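Please, structure for the following, as tokens.
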Amino acid sequence: MKQIKVLGTGCRNCETTARLIQEVAAACGVAIELEKVTDMAAILGYGVMSTPGVVVEGKVVHAGGVPDRKKIETWLIPA
């Protein structure tokens, strides 16, 4: 099971990012545990200055703007 965190204050882009990750994971048959991190100190602790940010298995993989489905697939399915 992949551990994924969406970093953001709960704005529409953050909610869209979380929903897209869930949809892509379901379509790919990948089990994930999705956590939404809204605490600004915690977000800054990851070095993310623009949200939404995405952390997969402890590594920041995205910051700023809504990622597209292809990019999300690369986080879920190993090359």
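The radius of gyration is 11 Å. The CA atoms of residues 24 and 69 lie 7 Å apart.
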